[in-house]
Amino acid sequence: MKTEKNIRSIAYAFTALWGYAGTVKLISWTQSRAEMHKQPFPETVADVFFWAIPLLELGIVVLLLVPKLRLWGLRASLALITVFTLYLALVLGRAFGSIPCACGGILSGMGHAAHLVFNSFFVILGCIAMVLARKGRHGDIANPGVRRKEGRVFSG
Fold this sequence. Notes:
By secondary structure, the protein is mainly alpha-helical.
């Protein structure tokens, strides 16, 4: 029960993160679009990312809120936050020159280093959720398509 509660708490933390980030990007779409176009992507890619990223973030929120889809939401969260964190590490390493943050909201006030620490915290949370789901007594969290009965695993 404690494992499930911890996984749910991590899912809610990601829900808050993605819900906030996606909503802010869509509400302040003029600023978000301008910041996306300052990134080192071609114009057409920036336009696609401008819409795809907040919609993906809000889609992940839906996955996280539906108990049977929560593990998929956590996997997607870990993948997305890892990509964002690696991108930030490259920005900090000056791989692209000087690039503004395209985050929006309170996160845009963070410097790149602080944002990297913030993201790294969520990467760690995502990893913890994956370990808990995999090693926990609640195999239905780690393998939603598998039913358990008296310690035995049944596909179904």
